[in-house]
Design goal:
This protein is mostly helical and 404 residues long. The protein has a single domain, classed as Na+/H+ antiporter like fold (Up-down Bundle). The protein has 18 helices and no strands. The longest helix has 34 residues, at 196-229. The mean pLDDT is 84.
């Protein structure tokens, strides 16, 4: 009864702002977003869920799927992009490199299981649904994607980000991104055309170049820049420099074909070695939690429009969403299990790899642009991506509540 009454009030208040939004633009949208985030984030925690879950619901409720008050636009997208980069930068700052190295074996096997089981299942169900081999293969490639930005925030909320499980998830996500990029390149060469060997060689060379760049910059250039920044007479000069480095790493990662979040994460790791870690942690978290993170979480829900899914496409979306969740939990979980984690921890690690996030959206856009995905199928894959993203914090909380 209390939930129904609260949601009714929430509906009335948000709907009352709709006409104001039409006349006053994005600033009023921000008012709605932050107001709604506070309410639903609070309710999520009140009922035993991560506040992140409520923030994701804001986008779905206020977006085209239900109230149709908020819509995706260039400003929202760009601010959301900054938000996800800052979130992964924060995760990098909090990463203990020694613990990260210890988890590299389990991360590798977790990534392997989390890549090939979804790939095979997506291909198989795509074929059963009547799609051509090329299209079905690309559906599998989309299901391979992993974006741990949502998992990072959830793990931070429940105090598990710096655990062995947390480091395994972070490491597996990086490896998953590299494997996914290689598979994507091979599939595009096979389905769209091109020389497979030359494309694969180029992809591997780009990955190597990025990691060489990250290591050399992290050990030689970044410490020197922070030494100089401490002498510059500018307010918050070190924080500004840190953000510049994060954006440069992200731009370079994207230029080489990797996700920008990989660059942001490695920027955080390298900056954490400079001695500025604890000073920056508090400031980055304050900026992110108060402004950029809520916009990023809300933007995910806003992208969905479940009203466009009907008939065969609706069934395909539901079944593929189930496959996407189960195959990541089972595949990544199996990889963690064989490297020494107990069953519950393995399931928690698998749950942490479920979200496809912006990585899957990037891959889906590539498929749409290349002509492999029709508009309807593209809509379905975007919806599946959002479903996996929304369900991830619930799965993590459910599993890790019992993990000791």
């Amino acid at each position: 009864m209390l939930i129904t009454y609260t949601l009714a009030i929430f509906y009335q208040l948000t709907y009352a702002f709709k006409n104001i939004l039409v006349q006053n633009g994005f600033l009023k949208e921000l008012v709605i977003i932050f107001f709604a985030v506070i309410i639903l984030g609070h309710l999520s925690v009140k009922f035993g869920q991560p506040s992140l879950f409520g923030k994701l619901l804001v986008g779905i409720i206020l977006g085209p799927s239900i109230l149709n008050i908020l819509h995706s636009n260039i400003i929202l997208k760009e601010l959301a992009q900054v938000g996800v980069l800052m979130l992964m930068f924060l995760a990098g700052l909090e990463t203990n490199i020694a613990e990260f190295r210890k988890s590299i074996v389990s991360s590798f096997f977790t990534a392997i299981g989390g890549v090939f089981l979804p790939l095979g299942a997506g291909l198989g169900y795509g074929l059963l649904s009547g799609y051509s081999f090329n299209v079905a293969l690309f559906i599998g490639v989309i299901l391979v994607s992993t974006s741990v930005s949502i998992s990072v925030q959830t793990l931070r909320e429940i105090g598990k980000l710096r655990s062995r499980e947390g480091f395994t998830i972070l490491g597996a996500a990086v490896i998953d991104d590299v494997l996914g990029l290689i598979i994507l390149s091979m599939v595009l060469a096979l389905t769209v055309g091109g020389e497979e060997i030359s494309i694969l060689t180029l992809v591997i060379l780009k990955i190597i170049v990025f990691f060489i760049f990250a290591v050399i910059s992290g050990y030689l250039i970044v410490p020197l820049l922070f030494a100089l920044a401490s002498k510059i007479l500018v307010t918050e000069g070190e924080l500004t420099l840190a953000l510049i480095i994060v954006f440069i790493f992200s731009i370079f990662a994207e230029y080489l074909g990797l996700a920008g979040i990989v660059g942001a994460y490695f920027a955080g790791i390298m900056i954490s070695k400079t001695g500025n870690k604890f000073n920056l942690l508090e400031k980055v978290e304050a900026i992110g939690q108060s402004f950029f993170f809520p916009i990023f979480f809300v933007s995910i829900g806003v992208m969905a429009d479940i009203n466009s899914l009907t008939g065969h496409l609706l069934i395909f979306t539901i079944v593929t969403s189930v496959i996407a969740v189960i195959t990541k939990v089972m595949g990544a979980g199996a990889g963690a299990l064989i490297t020494g984690f107990n069953l519950k921890s393995s399931l928690g690690i698998g749950a942490g790899m479920v979200s496809r996030g912006e990585v899957a959206l990037i891959v889906a856009n590539i498929g749409f642009g290349s002509g492999l995905l029709t508009t309807d199928l593209y809509t379905a894959m975007v919806t599946i991506t959002i479903v996996t993203t929304v369900i991830t914090p619930l799965l993590i909380k459910m599993v890790f509540n019992d993990v000791k």
